[in-house]
Specification:
854 residues; alpha+beta; six-stranded mixed beta sheet; 43% helix; flat
Amino acid sequence: MRIAPALPLVSISWLLVGSAAAETADVDGDGKPDTVRIEATGAIAVERAGGGGAFVPFGLTGNLGKTQLSIAGPGGAKGRPYVVAVAQFGNAWEAVALRWDKGAMRELWRGPVGPAGDDGEYEVWIEARPSGLVRWQRRSDLDRCDGAQAELFREVWDDASGTWKPARPSVRFPDSTATVKAVASPALGAGWYRASGATTAAGATDAGQLVAPRVLEDSDPKTAWREDRGGDGTGEMFTFRTTMKGGRAAAVRFVPGGDGKGNRVRALHVIGKGASYRVELDASTTGPVVATLPQPIDGCVTVAIAGVDRKGATNITAIAELSVIADVELAPGGAEALLAAQVAKGGIAGESAARALAARGAAAVQALTAALASADAASRPRVLAALAKIKDPAVIEPITVALAKGELPEGDRVAAAELIASLPGGAAALAPLIHQPGDEHGRLAVAKVVARTQPIELARAAGQGSREFRAAIVELLAGAGTMSLAGWGSDANHPIPQRADVFRALSKAAAAHGVTAEERARIAELFLAALEGWSSPEARRTWKADELYEIHYRLIAGLGAIGDGAELRGMVAWLGRAGDDARTRALRRVAANALGVNGTADARLALAQLASDKDAGTRLAAVRALASEGESGDAPTPHGPVTADDTAARDAGDRAIGTILSGDAWPELRRAAASALGVRCQRRGPRDALDGALEHDADLAVRVDALTALVTCKSDGIAGRLLAIADDGKREPDLRDRAVALYGQLGAPGAAVALIDRLERWRGQAFSDESALRLAVRAATALGVLGDAKGAPALLSSARDGAFPELQAASAAALGALGKACPKDAIMLLRNLAQSEQRSVSIAARGAMKKCGR
């Protein structure tokens, strides 16, 4: 076989440079040498010594670049070898595999080779060899550390099936080696060296999917690398590269995987530049073993599986941990200081050093603490983050101080607190941090950990700090859902803000079903009793008005949301006795808002009472709450025994809202009442109230809202009523305009026809009636909303009318809104309108062009 100069792109030595390649071999098995050439024209030519031959063109065309011929075979098929031709055409590569059969060259396989993957991250090659036809993949970063190329995802051709089949790696180790035996040892590394690649991995289907085998160095024996090619792992290789300067590969650490049920790795081969060692593993190996190399290796190291003892029918080979240890890591007391210095410098090397130190216990803590003493502002967080990953009691003091000061990086705080809590004596050291003045983010990270085991300690942190910190503590307490906090509100030893936040947490837990139904009932009873207790003359003498208001606020907010029956009646009665100053008015509004999320009939009855409150703000909050709960069937599932009748609550709500709509002095309140009745007007009372408001309310906005509410609940005869209002010249233009818009949204049968007639009529009146032009614009828009093809002719007509740009723009937009119903002849019109000098027209036309017909 002719050998080519090396190709820079792929660095494979058997590729030729030139326009053609030729090889002489006995192709047809007659004992005479035949000639095989790759022609400059892009074809494979076979000239038989006995006369005749074959001509097989490549599938690719273009300028012929590099080529290669390989002719070899195992001697089967009557001695007729495989012929493989590889050629480059431009930037593409193709290979063809042939064999002489029955008087002709038969094509076995043809396909792309060379750079593959999304970005050419790996290569595919094929060659005829004495052992057979072989195809493999290559990535230069996974080549052996002694410079030899690694054949990844190796396959051999199967003549019987005519397909490629996976084959075990074919690896030749250097001849000159020394053998070392691995011995049981706890020595750890993985600081200077990291696994950067493996020749196979579970789930990977090509070389582009191979990633660094992190499972080999995650210190978790339950995770393991497994051979994934159907073999026993022999010949699979792992590449280790240095991440820091100053260290050489001095030892290899190995932990078997598979829980003793799979194959046993018997030997490893360690290869580096100018070095090659065989590592023998004892048959009884179950835990970590370390093999110290005769001489350290500079630079990258390849570790290959050199021997495997099969065990069982599964033929699974697994490795739990495999790492390369640098000489500096084996030096007593020397590695920790170097690693700590690298952590302070940062970067990828610093991250690797931090991982190495995490397994070195008190010695690592000592080295990092020393580095911390001289660390500057930039490196200090890095050193602290590394300390916070070492599971050793020695980290408790420096990390608790760092948490209190907020020095740890934000993403490391909770994990650091969890680590401290897991250490002997750590929980006791952690809890006081919540109460110390200092960084609230650090305190909150501690609180998240303390909340899981010491909710009472967390409660002591309530009521302190900024609003955001207090809210976060409340959420954590609510998540704990503990009833042990229930007595805090009546304990005089606790500050008012602390008790208020505990009340708030209890009500949140109850509202979110974080407690049982029985506990929820106990909380409601407690809240009502506390409300009465905190209103006594003694309480008023003892506490400031602002402090009492905070407690009352939390109790009422909680009661309104979770109470029912007697507790809600007691709360409403308390509000009635509380007076009428600014604070009590605010508390009644708080009650209305809370009752809106309660969902029980008792809550709706309470809201109906508050809807008649003399304070307008309270009435507004009550009406909005009643509107948000809608029909009783749509209300949330009651969370306790229902003591009020749903029908009575519904009727009381109807009457309360209707009363406001018909007689409240505030237009804003009447508007809210009209909107609230929009989900109730299937019943006669709400419908009559809306009808009355529509016809008689002095405020136009209220009448508009009443009309909208009647449409929302699809009141009987509403379609005809909307048209009657639109046609009534005595009505306000705003109301008529709203009626046309609602008519389009209602989508009643025959709506398009009714709007077409009115569009034409109002267009005709527009020259002398400004309100008619406004109605015509609204009618055009409503036709677009309806999406009925019947409206297209009228819209085309008004879009062509340049007398009224606002109508022209509305009609153009409506044509687009028709979507598929938009006629084809509208496209040309819209193109013309897109060039209009009227900006509103051109914008509308351009937008409509994107939708018309779609």
